[in-house]
Design a protein that fits this description.
mainly alpha
């Protein structure tokens, strides 16, 4: 049982070594697997935006706004 489990692990290590020697494995990816890589396809979006539905922040609702008191009951200017 133990030899079967070790055999699979050793076989995977040997296969990885054979891939590296034959050039099928990318040596840069093995050096640092967390390094950023180029995407498979070029990006198409020029800008991104996010739409989040919901109510305003609680900080906005309870914050004192003196400008609102100034404009209370008046029409807003047309810009």
């Amino acid at each position: 049982m133990v030899l079967e489990q070790c055999g699979v692990g050793l076989g995977a290590i040997a296969l990885g070594q054979l891939f590296r020697q034959s050039g099928w494995a990318a040596p840069a990816a093995l050096a640092n697997p967390l390094a950023p890589r180029q995407p498979h396809f070029p990006p198409k979006a020029s800008a991104s935006s996010s739409f989040m539905a919901g109510a305003p922040s609680h900080l906005e609702l309870f914050d004192y706004k003196p400008e609102l008191a100034k404009w209370m009951g008046k029409r807003l200017p047309q810009n």
